[in-house]
């Protein structure tokens, strides 16, 4: 066999078969291995991350299937959660991913984020700082800028509304007590919790975080609003300024 062993010949044959199989177009794959058909037959939970993403991407290129492209997208991050951090330009670095595909991927990521937060918090009773963390941790840990949120509560500590009041450092001059307290005044609700994130992932409050909290406590007393806490959210963790500082 031209100096080749039977084992080597078999390995080369299998390698050629695998390569030719990998070059198949999506419609040429066995039906049970196509993402659309697989989801229909077995349910979404049976699909891999790459297969689910391939359904969003829809089409491939002349040389790669949608599944190939989805695998390349997933290799841009260490975990599936980090897809939230990718920009349109990040995705377009992959040949075969243009504006449309990139926008579709980002839209799905944003939708998944919204499905797990905010609206689900309304009518939730807050009993501890951990309750606030569980409501906002998934959404806020992906943010690249600090966002300050006010959680408006009724007399029974039930969430009535969540309002974004500022984007940027909490010590920036445009963050006023009026902006933070306006929804409580408008809705005539007596309590609030302030929440903001640290994009660095470290939830330790800064001096400006603590100073803002002190100012808010003083201003809220004048208006008859009780500040229950100021929660700083990091990557998978949080800190309660009230617990740390004894407010």
Write the layout of secondary structure elements.
Elements: H1 6-22, H2 35-42, H3 49-57, H4 66-74, H5 88-92, H6 99-115, H7 129-140, E1 147-153, E2 159-167, H8 177-187, E3 191-197, H9 207-223, E4 226-233, E5 238-240, H10 241-245
Parallel strand pairs: 3-4
Antiparallel strand pairs: 1-2, 1-3, 4-5
Please characterize this protein's 3D structure.
- The structure is a single chain.
- The protein folds into 2 domains: 6-115, DNA polymerase, domain 1, CATH 1.10.150; 120-245, Cytidine Deaminase, domain 2 (3-Layer(aba) Sandwich), CATH 3.40.140.
- It contains 10 helices and 5 strands; from the N terminus they run H-H-H-H-H-H-H-E-E-H-E-H-E-E-H.
- Helix 3 crosses helix 4 and helix 8 (177-187) packs parallel to helix 9 (207-223).
- 45% of the residues lie in helices and 14% in strands.
- By secondary structure, it is of the alpha+beta class.
- The protein has a 5-stranded mixed beta sheet with strand order 2-1-3-4-5, with helices on both faces.
Summarize the structure.
The protein is an alpha+beta fold and 247 residues long.
């Amino acid at each position: 066999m031209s100096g080749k062993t039977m084992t080597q010949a078999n390995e080369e044959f299998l390698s050629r078969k695998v390569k030719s199989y990998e070059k198949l177009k999506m419609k040429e794959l066995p039906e049970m291995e196509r993402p659309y058909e697989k989801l229909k037959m077995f349910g979404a939970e049976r699909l891999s991350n790459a297969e689910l993403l391939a359904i969003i991407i829809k089409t491939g290129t002349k040389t790669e299937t949608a599944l190939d492209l989805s695998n390349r997208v997933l290799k841009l991050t260490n975990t599936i959660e980090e897809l939230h951090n990718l920009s349109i330009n990040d995705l377009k670095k992959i040949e075969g991913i243009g504006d449309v595909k990139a926008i579709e991927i980002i839209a799905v990521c944003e939708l998944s984020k919204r499905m797990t937060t905010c609206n689900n918090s309304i009518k939730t009773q807050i009993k501890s700082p951990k309750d606030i963390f569980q409501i906002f941790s998934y959404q806020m840990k992906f943010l690249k800028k600090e966002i300050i949120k006010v959680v408006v509560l009724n007399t029974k500590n039930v969430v009535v509304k969540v309002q974004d009041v500022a984007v940027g450092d909490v010590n920036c001059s445009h963050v006023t007590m009026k902006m933070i307290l306006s929804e409580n005044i408008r809705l005539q609700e007596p309590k609030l919790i302030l929440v903001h994130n640290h994009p660095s992932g470290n939830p330790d409050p800064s001096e400006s975080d603590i100073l803002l909290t002190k100012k808010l406590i003083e201003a809220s007393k004048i208006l008859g609003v009780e500040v229950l806490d100021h929660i700083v959210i990091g990557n998978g963790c949080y800190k309660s300024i009230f617990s740390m500082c004894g407010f």
